[in-house]
Description:
By secondary structure, the chain is of the alpha/beta class. Helix content is 19%, strand content 14%.
Amino acid sequence: MKILIILQLWLSLLLISPRLVETHLVVMASPEVQPNRKEILLQKKEATTTPNKRASQAIEELGGTVQYAQSGKTIVGIHVSNIKIDNKILSLLKGLPSLQLLILQKTTFTPQDLQQLSQINSLKRLNLFECKLTSRDIDVLAHDFDLDYLGLSATNLTDEQLMLLKDETSLKSLDLAYTKISDKGLRALKNLSQLKYLDLTKTKISDAGLSELKSLSSLQILDLTWNRIDGQGLESIGELGQLRQLYLNATLISDTGISHLKSLTKLELLDLGNLEITDSTLDTIGLLQTLKTLSLSGSNITGKGLQKLNTLSMLEDLYLRKTDLRNNDLIYLKPFDKLERLNLSQTKITDAGLQHLEKLTNLKFLNLSNTDIRDPGLIFLRPLNKLNTLYLDLTEISDIGLKEVGRHVQIEKLMLSHTNVSDKGLAYLDQIQNLQILYLDYTEVTSMGLVYIKKHNNLKVLSLLRTKISDSEAALFQKMLPDCEIRHSQLRE
């Protein structure tokens, strides 16, 4: 849950506005997670001018990627990794007058190189993910650049170096995740009055340090995931009246600390995943009526607690993975008629519980992975005619169940790994015209079933790990679907 990504702010600065598909709600490998939110996967487009084509070719030779403006003519973003900046690369980058985003992952450079890059007047977003930085580098960043976004995640940044950025009042986004920044370093942020996005994932901060953030009156997105904070410092966070997204996943926070959040009247996303919270916390959460996304995955809440959330009429995304919910508890989901994404994986629900989902007709994403769902229960999903993503992996469904799944002709992503489906069941999916992602790992599917899969012309990813399909059969099938990424490994007897 975190995309990934909290790239929404980055992209809005670039005048690109894709939907924030999957915030990084559960940063620990879960189906909710968005892909790596620490970098942007830049899409390649065909260049239409000679300078762009030359630059694109050079970047590709370095193993990097480029991003074009919507016109497809101008390079606005570049991502390279594991390279050493030299004069040739500097000349190439300085020759791109519209370059706005530069990601230098695990890249080696000197302070002089950074000074050269600062001459690119259009450059507003710089990400130095996993780079080794010196104090001189930080000094150049502070005095020579005019940035909206600065990414320093997974670098060797120290508190003393961060203090060099204390006067960068034009910064709107700052990523300090996976650094050793402590409470002392947070003092450097006091004057960053325009800061809207701050990522402090897995740093060395404590509750005491959170008081240094209460002056950030413009802050809209704050990530405190994986920090050793117990909630005493949340009183300071409660003063951030403009906050829209707050991530507290895998911290030490319990019920008592959450009460400080009731003043966040503009909060739209709250991640409380993997916390030792109980139903009593939901008294406070029920007051946050602007919430659209809520994660309670891995917490100690029950169905009784869900009743306290019936005031959240704007809720669109609800993540309840690995909670103690049972069939009858799902009746409390009925008030959430705007719900589009629901994760019930690793809960104790069975077929009988699915009848309570029939009224959630706006659901587009449903995760039932690793539950005791079987074929008969799938009939209750018939009214969900907007469903485009369905996780049924690690359940007991079989070919009979796929007959029901095939009724959902709008499905684009279907996860069936570790189920009892076989070749016969795949025939029931032929009415799904826009199937793009299909996982069949550890199933009874053989090469005979590939005949049915071949009909899905829009397939982009097909996973066949540990199946009875041989390497040669998979290679032949890859030739039949050249635009599809086929992931395969043969089951060894």
